[in-house]
Amino acid sequence: MRALIIDDEPLSLDYFQRLLREQPGVELAGKFTDPHKALAAAGEVQPDVVFLDIEMPEISGIELAKAIQQRAPQAKIVFVTAYREYAVQAFELNATDYLLKPIRKDRLEKTLERLRLDQTQNTAPPKPQDRIGQVCCFSSLQFRLEGSGKLIEAKWRTARTKELFALLLHHRRKPIRKDYILELIWPDTDPAKSVAQLYSTIYQIRKLADKIGLPLAIHNQANSYIMELQGIPIDAENWESDLLALSPLSQATLNQHLEVLDRYSGDYLGEEDYLWAEGERERLRALWLHQASAIGAFLKDNGQPTAALALYRTIQERHPYMEDTHFMLMQLYASLGARNKVTACYEKLVKMVREEYETEPSAQIQTWYENWQRQTIRN
After folding, report:
1. Residue 238 neighbours by CB distance under 10 Å
2. How far apart are CA 237 and CA 243, in angstroms?
3. Which candidate, 341, 357, 352, places its Cα nearest to that of 372?
């Protein structure tokens, strides 16, 4: 493991050099007090790790780290600082770790152990079947493996880590302001602490993405973040595109319409119950309902009442307070001669509208039901 150490204090450099020499497998490729010489060396040496003091006189360690990452993108950055609060900025740059001065030998050994583990994982042969092939947002936030299609659940460090990922995903390809994120995810937290938690959580998301094989990039733009999935599809996005691309509904295209409809496996992030996702959740629900109703009516009008009945039952489960759905089920049960089902369905409708709307079923439905009862008695 090739290492560079950069610190404007010569005594700190010498002390750190002695610590590194005691560690097996670490080659010190250079030590610098001059940040410009250090930057040039990073481009030439291409180190595996750079230990970098944050408080530099000519250029801040944060700015120098950004420049080093451009010259040596594979280099891991480990910040060295006498002030714990600088760790927040370290995580912002996706630093591997940070060390507090004075550096303890046991703490350095833990950092090197983490670096060796990352190095081993990065040099291991890639496993295509372990790469994420799709992000799933219907019902709950999950990931589908490429090749096998198997669903896996990521082990989120905290519930807020998961929610922040979902929020960035929701706003993908668009900047989302940090103050807006803080208001949503950490509304009751002290501002200074919430900023630190935000940066730490971004870091945790990046680490998790690396672990599960999800190629994403989270860019820091001024006071905003923007996340890109780098080509990984999202089930809800693909579903809507395929839905809008369908040919007009006919007997020839019926199976295509049903296949797309079936892919809606639950409301958008429905199990997560994030309030900020409610608008998108309702929009996609409305698209599904429009499509399901159109297919149900087509099946009914084309002599397939049993198939229509199954579909309208699903509509009723997902949208239980729609009077029209109850009425359609009543008509379908009547066409199939299921008298008890018609009565049960009507009674369920009466109970629903009284409890939810404090009213009675529409005059049209009441008239239809009364006429059906009279005809049933005559028969």
Report:
1. 13
2. 10
3. 341
Hey, which residues does 134 pair with through a beta bridge? Answer: 144
CA distances from 121 to 3, 209, 336 (A): 19, 13, 62
What is the rounded distance in angstroms from the CA atom of residue 246 to the CA atom of residue 256?
8
> Nearest to residue 48, comparing CAs of 32, 67, 25, 81?
25
Q: Are strands 151-152 and 142-145 parallel, antiparallel or unpaired?
A: antiparallel
Cβ-Cβ contacts under 8 Å for 98 (sequence gap 6 or more): 78, 79, 80, 81, 86, 87, 90
Which of helix, strand or coil describes residue 56? Answer: coil
Query: Is-cis flag, bond preceding 125, omega within 30?
Result: no
**38-63 residue pLDDT tens:** 999 998 889 999 998 888 777 878 78
How confident is the model over 209-260, as pLDDT tens digits? 988 889 888 888 778 999 998 889 999 999 999 999 999 999 999 999 999 9
First to last CA, the chain: 90
CA distance 202 to 209: 11
Residue 142's beta-bridge partner residues?
136
**Distances, alpha carbon 215 to alpha carbons 135, 190, 205, 208, 263, in Å:** 11, 33, 11, 10, 24
Q: What is the pTM of this model?
A: 0.70
- pLDDT tens digits, one per residue of 249-293: 999 999 999 999 999 999 999 999 899 999 999 999 999 999 999
